[in-house]
Specification:
The complex is a heterodimer of chains A (114) and B (112).
Chain A: E1 4-6, E2 10-13, E3 19-25, E4 31-38, E5 42-51, E6 54-57, E7 64-70, E8 73-78, E9 87-94, E10 104-105, E11 109-113
Parallel strand pairs in A: 2-11
Antiparallel strand pairs in A: 1-3, 3-8, 4-5, 4-9, 5-6, 7-8, 9-10, 9-11
Chain B: E1 4-7, E2 10-14, E3 19-25, E4 30-38, E5 45-51, E6 56-59, E7 62-67, E8 72-77, E9 86-94, E10 101-102, E11 106-111
Parallel strand pairs in B: 2-11
Antiparallel strand pairs in B: 1-3, 3-8, 4-5, 4-9, 6-7, 7-8, 9-10, 9-11
The chains are: A mainly beta (114), B mainly beta (112).
Chain lengths: 114, 112
């Protein structure tokens, strides 16, 4: 079974704080993704990575950065948290090109920025 | 790039009736179409998928159909039960691409 874990289920931070969200997968997947999910807006892609140290912007990268130093770990960084970044953050991983494009999601981190 | 439209955004059906959710995609090079179910407070999970070389796939009460000519695919749930209440997402991926493109989601409510 694929396992994708996220470092926290709930986080409360203050405006201006630097926030780290961490995601770990145990299936040796090449691709990892960060989404945010807001009511009525579906899943919006923030950043994704298709290899260690490689990253690509998704649809809403502003205010976020990412880090992938090891294959199994993908971190989302909010450099200076703002209230409009209050949201549910979902990490996912997949292995492309082998007929296994399915993404497997982590449990999510609900972030509240005060 | 690929664009996926999903309808309806909300759907309410009586227990035991059927539910149908439809998605259209824009790029004819898309060749893989998964459906995810997200129950309240939980992660999205794959429930069924279909590839472009197949027109229909069934798994118990769930089926997906694909019309490549019209570029649309649909999720069919028969004999709905309360545990089918959830948000459902369709997605598509272009062959060789790295990321899925998701629809906006459908909130399905099963009324007892």
């Amino acid at each position: 079974d694929v396992k994708v874990t996220q470092s926290s289920r709930y986080l409360v931070k203050r405006t201006g704080e630097k926030v780290f969200l961490e995601c770990v997968q145990d299936m040796d997947h090449e691709n990892m993704f960060w989404y945010r999910q807001d009511p009525g807006l579906g899943l919006r892609l923030i950043y994704f990575s298709y290899d260690v140290k490689m990253k690509e912007k998704g649809d809403i990268p502003e205010g976020y950065s990412v880090s992938r130093e090891k294959k199994e770990r993908f971190s989302l960084i909010l450099e200076s948290a703002s209230t409009n970044q209050t949201s549910m953050y979902l990490c996912a991983s997949s292995s492309p090109g082998t007929g296994k494009e399915t993404q497997y999601f982590g449990p999510g981190t609900r972030l509240l920025v005060l | 790039g690929e664009n996926v439209e999903q309808h309806p955004s909300t759907l309410s059906v009586q227990e035991g009736d059927s539910a149908v959710i439809k998605c259209t995609y824009s790029d004819s090079a898309s060749n893989y179409f998964p459906w995810y179910k997200q129950e309240l407070g939980k992660r999205p999970q794959l429930i069924i998928d279909i590839r472009s070389n197949v027109g229909e796939k069934k798994d118990q009460r769930i089926a997906v159909t694909l019309n490549k000519t019209a570029k649309h695919f649909s999720l069919h749930i028969t004999e709905t039960q309360p545990e089918d209440s959830a948000v459902y997402f369709c997605a598509a991926i272009i062959q060789g691409a790295q990321k899925l493109v998701f629809g906006q989601g459908t909130r399905l409510t099963i009324n007892p």
